[in-house]
Amino acid sequence: MSHRKVSGRGHVGGIAGLALVCLGLAGCAGSDDITGAFSPPAAAPAPARHATHAAPARASAPARTASTHPEMTPRALAQAEANFDRCIAGLEPLARSRGVSAAGFRRYTAGLKPDMSIMEKLQTQPEFSRTTGDYVTMLVSETRIRKGREAMEQNAAVFEAVGRTYGVDPYVVAAIWGIETNYGSARGSYPVIQATGTLACVGRRQAYFRDEFVAALRIVDKGDVPESHLRGSWAGAFGLTQFMPTAFQRDAVDFDGDGHRNVVDSVADAMGSTANKLKRGGWGAGRSWGYEVVLPRGFNYLLADKNVRKPMSEWAALGVRRPEGRSMPAAGETAYLLLPAGAKGPAFLMTDNFRAILSYNPADAYALAIGHLADRIRGGGPFVQPWPEDQRALSRLERSELQKRLASRGYDVGEHDGAIGSKTRTAVREYQVSVGMLPDGLATGEVLESLRTRGGS
């Protein structure tokens, strides 16, 4: 894909560690986050002269974990580490079939060693206690808003061209850049070939990461990104807006017209590729991601469901209004109602463009932060309805307890794993109805305490 050449190149480094807990939100990556988007900042390995092929920066002893997965036991990890060279060599036919040259495969895998410290990150899912409001407030800071405006001004030609070419809101593209890597200042230092190669041959996600490893080899073999620049998260996400290698192969574009799809060093390529990904995710030109709304007294909270989509005219007929007398969107535009902090917090009508942001990262809190940051960079104000100050996020143990207590009362919650999915939200809503609470479907301490008070193991 070619484009008129536009200016805008930048140097980046270090990854933004997004501390995001599932929060009972739809689409959360849950307990198996492999992109690193839900992980806190971690010390990355110090760069070496040829870090991808160097010995691991940390001790290569098998990670100590409490996993019962057969490929995550100390013995299995030690065997996989000992077999690493043979495993990598065995991936050559797959790499060759996907366009990696024989010479390239030999060059980029010669002397490759696993970084066994990555197994601890694969196995350990950090526990956080942030509500949606805390998370959005943390990310949509005055500093990030100011830096977003500066970044867009410095790369005005790029963002104008991106919006014109893809029909995607350039402010949303800038917001993704800001939240993913703080406008390029925090991108990550793990050599992507080493990281994905480790995960392709060691641990419980080998099948998934074989594709990522081969895609990473193809990126450097084709000359899109120099090997020494291909660094990112422990799980292989890289670049100004954090692409996994397979997502890069699918969505990256050469937006600056230099013959390379370099989302690491070229602002134009990174922003164009991000816009292309959003467009492929369903972004519709000329529409917002969503609208803050005010609900009328006595509103039926059972309508706050992603599966309940209505035209704006029907929401208006139900008494839903935008705050401060703002006009409602086009009557025929459809949306669903999202209450990320339950009935006590702000409410939003979400359009298909919100779902397009979710295609970038499937967590409501993340997508809401992206949309809100975009509007703030544009000049909009904060949300009118404040976030509840007395609300706290349940710990994973508490969420698991809530699921078990609901299940003991006959509700279908799915797995009792502490990850709040659609089944658990539906069960919470049904329970709330049964005890006379507002059925907003939010798993809160109030709901858990109600379950404890009413018994059930």
TrEMBL record:
Region of interest called Disordered, as start-end residue ranges on this chain: 41-73
CDD domains, per the entry: Slt35-like (cd13399)
GO MF term list: peptidoglycan lytic transglycosylase activity
Domain of life: Bacteria
Gene3D superfamilies: 1.10.530.10, Bacterial muramidase (1.10.8.350), PGBD-like superfamily/PGBD (1.10.101.10)
Compositionally biased spans, kind Low complexity: 41-70
Residue ranges annotated for the Peptidoglycan binding-like domain, each copy included: 398-451
Annotated Transglycosylase SLT domain residues: 84-375
GO biological process: peptidoglycan catabolic process
PANTHER family cross-referenced by the UniProt entry: LYTIC MUREIN TRANSGLYCOSYLASE, MEMBRANE-BOUND LYTIC MUREIN TRANSGLYCOSYLASE B
Protein name: Tn3 family transposase TnXax1
